[in-house]
Amino acid sequence: MYAVKTYIIILLTFCFSIGCRHAWVSYPQKVPEPCRLYQGSKECKLALEERANHTGQTGPIHSVNQSYYLFGLYPSEIVVNLEKYCPSGPKSAHQFQSFSDAFWEQITLLIYSPRTLEIECYPV
Predict the structure, then answer these.
(1) How many domains does the chain have?
(2) Domain that holds residue 90
(3) 22 in a domain, yes or no?
(4) Of 40, 50, 66, 121, which is most buried by a Cβ count within 10 Å?
(5) Residue 36 burial (10 A CB sphere; 0-12, 13-18, 19+)
(6) pLDDT digits over 57-90, tens only?
């Protein structure tokens, strides 16, 4: 009986430890409006200086839950409108499977595969 419990615990630990998935995407910051015509102008330099002053600040982070099915194969892609979450542009997107996501995936025998998407925005 003790050996069966130990085997089950080892099996569950193995299943949860291999279920971590991470995908990172970083986006460059948009070019300021005055720099689109001529990058040597005073307005462009002022806009770039102002943006450099905000580099230490962090923008808001949004968390979006995504649902996949059948071993994570359906739907093949989920389109997320980043403009909706980040009007000043996205800084990075991080899709991962949290512990609770992995738990639900294992409990449903890979039929339901939830993922979490975190979107970090540039400061306004």
Answers:
(1) 1
(2) 2-30+57-121
(3) yes
(4) 121
(5) exposed
(6) 788 999 999 999 998 889 988 999 999 999 888 9
